[in-house]
Amino acid sequence: MFGFVINKLKNRKWLNLCLLMGVALFIALFVCHPMFEKGAGNQILDRLFMDHATQQNEFPARMSREGTYAVADYPDSQSVLDKLSGYEKKWTEYVDINKVSSQQLITLSGGRADTEFGGPNNYFTIGYLPGLSEYADVVKSQTDTATFECSISEKTMDHYGLVAGEKIYLHVPDGSGKKEISFVISQICREKDINDPYWAKTLSDMGDVIFVSQDVFDEMMQYYSEDNISYSDFLMLDYRQINTENASLYDGYMEQFKDADKLYNDNIRDTLERFFTQQKTIKLMLWALELPCLVLLILFIRMISAQILSLEENDILVLRSRGATKLQVFILYLQQSGIIAFAGCVLGIVLGYIMCRAAASTDGFLRFTAKDIGTYRFVWQMLVYAVAAAVIMVLFITVPVWKKSKDAISEHSRERISKKKPLWEKCFIDVILLALSAYLLYNYNKQKSTLAISVLENRSIDPVMILDNSLFIFAAALLCVRLTGLIILLVDRLFKKRFSPAMYASFLQLKRTRYNQGFLAVFLIMTVAGGIFDANMARTMNSNMEKRIVYNVGCDAIYNEAFRLRIQYNKDGSVNWMYDEPDFGKYESLKNEGICDGVTRVLEDERVDISAGSGSVSDAYLMAINTKEFGETAKLQSDQNDDINDAHWFNYLNELAKEPDGVIISSNLAKALGLKVGDSLNYSRYVPEAVDDDQIYASENVKVCAIVKGFPGYERYTYETDAEGNVTEQEKYLIVANYATVVEKFGMTPYSVWMNLSKGKTVDDIYKNLTSAQQLIDENKNSATVQITNGMFTLSFILSLIVCSVGFLLYWVMTLKQRELQFGIYRAMGMRMREVKAMLLNEQIFLSFLPLLAGAGIGIAATAMFVRLISIIYLPQKHNIGVNVYIYQSDMLELAGVLFVAVAVCYVVISRLLKSMKIAQALRLGEDS
Q: For the chain, N or C: smaller number of CB within 10 Å?
């Protein structure tokens, strides 16, 4: 039996190889899912941890415990430290991650203190920090063996006005009253590397602590009558070891820690909660993006398997006539499909791994790179998915055999050409699905704002929103098949009497087989329309993201200088402060070196109050610029359709240059305060937050000289998230003033350095810690969501080209083979070869060219209808630049070129087959059948 099955496969090896290709691609796309999901999940997890570190300025994987212990239970410092180490050991027994660092601090409450050179009534806490000598540098030192030695931080020195060698007289309770203990400041310390994971609490956070040795700390415990000793323990873990496989397990353990110990805390669970939400979104996105391609491959496999089954109908009838039961025939074909599925499974796993790695390496549509994709590795779930896909393929290929296993040859002859109208055409399924797609589109468009907020709140997306375009394409394809049939009938009725014999035979064939041939039309339409939509969706997403980033940055590169803030606390309670400006000359020299074409200072402040008349706004955005330098350096990314502003933005700079006390304001600020050009307004600025959170120190009255909708670096819309994770949209108001005027009125405050790089230069030619538009674009391209979208759209587009070309060519070649007898009869009746070719060309016009044109039209229609809606997933924020649809001519030419080649090759192959066809053999074939 097995040998018989092998021989059957060999007899139609080319068809079976095409079927194997389709099955292998289906399984490959199927097994891509778990690998893509796990790889993208690990990438998201790493990104979330790094974002947390950047935004919160703390190590992103930290467990902690803070509280007090009774001195009666823990009489010395070592017993407390041992207890804390016990907690750390218990935590890492369950959360099996390598320890990066650990910071343990124990303190006594201290008390009021007098300083030798300063004033009285300062409050200090006595602390012991075991890692102080290892992780801190000594700035100044002075020893005094007559008293207890202590160390303080630079922050403590600056705040209390202390110096090395100065004595601190601490008044502590000793059970019988107050006792004075003298400490001498022997060391003034600062962190060796403030970014070291050890510094969960920095020395600045411990500003009122005087650090002593362990022996001195134990001795101090003897003087105190207090019952408790305070402690804090921070354990930093290697977050790179948390991945999609163990994240849920570790999250459960940490939740149990918190339930069992109210003093336990960590900053990992919040990150994991965000990850679980995004992971769910990634899963839905993957299925939504894969499903249309899977359906396309199923159509391809169905088309090939149907052709094979059609050619083997006689074999099935012979087997049945010789006594084989329907079950035996079914088992025979089950073995045949099983062999193909097994081979496809082996090839699919390898191909799926390669496809997933290739898709992950994209940083744009059809743009493959050599970037690091280490998170995308082989996972055992791929084997499970491969087996599941293989089983689906076996059933999909084999089940139709059961229906073909008829007992009577008469049934076979009756079913060769089906004239029965399909169920979908009878029930108007195409119209119903098209109406459903339009209804979903209408509803989603009405909910755009809500959907955008849901995306910003990291809620799960609705996959139907992504699949609606596929539903539209499928329904439109069915509708086109219906209309094509009506066009064929109409043309036949109008010109039937004028047709030549060849044309008459052609239309007769079209009318008889239009229901059977509809499958090819649907396949072609979905392939072409899907390819066009995938290309346009990917281009639109990438182009809009890049343009928004370029607009937000406002120039090629920005360097945020480190300004030192000096604060002086006076005895009368007042505070003086000033910033030390770094050397700006080193940036101006970049122009002389040919690295930059423009360099300028841009002073920015987002804590500005503005008032005019009876109206006012707070938290406005101030930019102070040198108009000439700014014009040479900054760039304003314009909208695709028109400029954002009514005139070129240089005109507004010219107006500002004419008015030293003038300002440019945003259109939303003008609307909020009822301002127009020539009006006056007043704006106020606050002291640095390090000095006071809410104190205005200066105000200025200015004249409005221009009103703009967009300006380099100005984002009109911002989004704030509350404690519950709810996102609210807010508008930002812009005010642009002259740099010299602002510095004169408000003093020197931190500014950033904007740069316009010379042609061929990159940020690497300047400093490595620059913020540049290109860096942000690269980071955005490497985000998991964008990478998945680019990768899947690229794969879908390539598979569409391959499947469409192979499917189209194979279908027509097999159709020609099946009609060999018919063509032989036509030739025997006197029909010329030229007329046979004309007949086939006419059939291709209605069955191939019209569907291909319809597919192009449907793809463009789907682009216009759905691209802006689906872009909400990737661009949920409102922006000065709206979402514009981008259609790249190169993508359309690539698709058209491949289809043209496929059609041309098909026609050449058909011509060669017709020429090689012999009338006598064809007629003898008819006699044998």
A: C
Residue with tokens 């124990």: 106
Share of the chain above pLDDT 90, in %: 20
**CA 348 vs CA 14, 283, 786: distances in Å:** 19, 21, 25
Show Cβ contacts of residue 178 under 8 Å, excluding neighbours closer than 6 positions.
Answer: 171, 172
CA distance 701 to 681: 6
pLDDT at site 155: 82
CA-wise closest residue to 820 among 911, 929, 923, 907: 923
Interval 808-837: pLDDT, tens: 777 777 777 777 777 777 777 777 878 877
In this structure, the dihedral spanned by the alpha carbons of residues 825, 827, 833 and 838, taken in order and rounded to 10 degrees, is: -40
What separation, in Å, do the N-terminal and C-terminal C-alpha atoms of the chain show?
26
Hey, what are 41's tokens? 């999940």
Give the 3-state secondary structure of 660-718.
CCEEEEEHHHHHHHCCCCCCEEEEEEECCCCCCCCCEEEEEEEEEEEEECCCCCCCCEE
> Among 412, 434, 450, where does a domain finish?
412
Q: What is the DSSP letter of 602?
A: E
- Asked if residue 145 belongs to a domain, the reply is yes
Q: Judge if 680 and 710 occupy the same domain.
A: yes
Task: Average the pLDDT over 674-691 and give the result.
Answer: 89
Is residue 264 helix, strand or coil?
strand
Q: Report yes or no on 245 lying in a domain.
A: no
Amino acid at 456: L
Determine whether 504 is exposed, middle or buried from the number of CB atoms within 10 Å of its CB (0-12, 13-18, 19+): middle
Domain co-membership, 646 together with 567: yes
Please indicate, yes or no, whether residues 358 and 380 belong to a single structural domain of this protein: yes
Q: Are residues 153 and 190 in the same domain?
A: yes
Site of tokens 């069915």: 478
Q: Answer yes or no: do 14 and 86 share one domain.
A: no
Instruction: List pLDDT tens digits, range 339-361.
Output: 888 998 999 999 989 888 888 88
Residue pair 804/527 in contact by the 8 Å Cβ criterion: yes
Buried b (16+ CB within 10 A) or exposed e, 267-294: bbeebbebbeebbebbbbbbebbbebbb
Q: What is the 3-state secondary structure (H, E, C) of 433-501?
A: HHHHHHHHHHHHHHCHHHHHHHHHCCCCCCHHHHHHHHHHHHHHHHHHHHHHHHHHHHHHHHHHHHCCH
The rounded mean pLDDT for the chain is 83
Does the residue 752 lie in any domain? yes
Would you say residue 148 lies in a domain?
yes
DSSP notation for 487-544: HHHHHHHHHGGG--HHHHHHHHHHHHHHHHHHHHHHHHHHHHHHHHHHHHHHHHHHHH
Reported in sequence order, the residue ranges of 570-675 that DSSP labels E, i.e. its strands, are 575-580, 596-612, 615-625, 662-666
Give the whole-angstrom CA distance, residue 34 versus residue 388.
Answer: 13
Q: Is residue 477 within 8 Å of residue 529, measured between CB atoms?
A: yes
By DSSP bridging, strand 167-173 and strand 122-128 are unpaired
- Give the separation between CA 331 and CA 817, rounded to whole angstroms: 28
Query: Burial, 541: exposed, middle or buried (Cβ in 10 Å; 0-12, 13-18, 19+)?
Result: buried
Residue closest to 609 by CA, chosen among 514, 710, 695:
695
Tell me: do 14 and 67 sit in the same domain: no
Whether residues 228 and 331 share a domain: the answer is no
Residues 656 and 697 in one domain: yes
The answer to whether 719 and 727 are in contact (CB under 8 A) is: yes
Q: How many domains does the chain have?
A: 3
- The predicted-structure confidence for 445-480, as pLDDT tens digits, reads as follows 998 888 888 888 777 778 888 889 889 999 999 999
Domain extent for 112? 62-237
pLDDT at 145: 66
Q: Which residue has the tokens 């303190």?
A: 107
183, 213, 237 - which closes a domain: 237
Sort strands 99-115 and 167-173 into parallel, antiparallel or unpaired.
Answer: antiparallel
Q: Which amino acid is at 698?
A: A
